# Entry
Amino acid sequence: MTDLRTHAEEIHEQFSDQLEIDVEDVESRLDTLVNEYKVPLEEARRSVTNGYLDEAGMERDDLGGGGGNEHVELADIDTAEQWVDVTAKVVDLWEPRSDSIAQVGLLGDESGTIKFTKWAKSDLPELEEEHVYDLGNVVTDEYQGNYSVKLNRTTTIEEVEEDIEVGDDTRTVEGALVDIQNGSGLIKRCPEEGCTRVLQNGRCSEHGEVDGEFDLRIKGVLDDGNEVQEIIFDQEATEELTGIELEEAKDMAMDALDTTVVADEMRAATLGRYYRVTGPTLGRYVLVNDLEILDEPVDAEQALIKARSI
Ligand SMILES: [Zn+2]
# Structure
């Protein structure tokens, strides 16, 4: 029974600020599941915790880690669902895409950068660009091999005076180019000063209908057999990658009365080939500065294993 009691105390501790519950109640819920219904302990814990989350109207991310977190450097974050403390500068803020998100952007420290998300219902103060903060109790997350941190209602935010020199987070990745995503090829950008947004059907999401400026870009995915990495080629890198220059791309689109022929042509020329690219990391992308064409799969054995598993 003492084992269940310990688990009950841990669960109780996580909800002590939000719910009026007592340890006995938690323990008896666990006891019913484990001893009556023979539910494995971990599953019982999850079930009981979810029950309290519902009662409190909370999400799993709102739960604290119970203090005593490790203070880590951003580049060392390589596991999801860890509760950690970081000291970081807000390098960039983006427009959140959802009402559930209050702020989204990029944090940086000496070791590199990482994306962060702050939930709207966390009721935390606004973070400002270029300011440095001690962030206590943030939770790590992972999506397709890229890590981020989430600020939730248990997170503590304290601005600090010291400045941080944000580290060079240039990365080199290699693998087969397995996908070229929508929004690649010949695109048009908003000509308004400082905007450069990619137009959708001739419209900028900020400035409405504008006379766009042509540009080349590829949003691609490299797969090394183990994991995938999203990469972006700017005009120069796209021309180097595909051998198709901007003027030529415009002619192609003009002849076909369709800009999508450019991306199709680029796909045909590059998909399945192996590349090594180097450049700075921006959010989940590596921005390609250097490009090298490889003859062989990086790790033929890994690629084969992967191929067999599909
Ligand atoms: Zn615009």
User: Anything to note?
Assistant: The mean pLDDT is 87. Residues 41-56 form the longest helix (16 residues). The longest strand covers residues 83-94. Helices lie at 2-15, 23-36, 41-56, 235-242, 246-256, 260-270, 300-309.
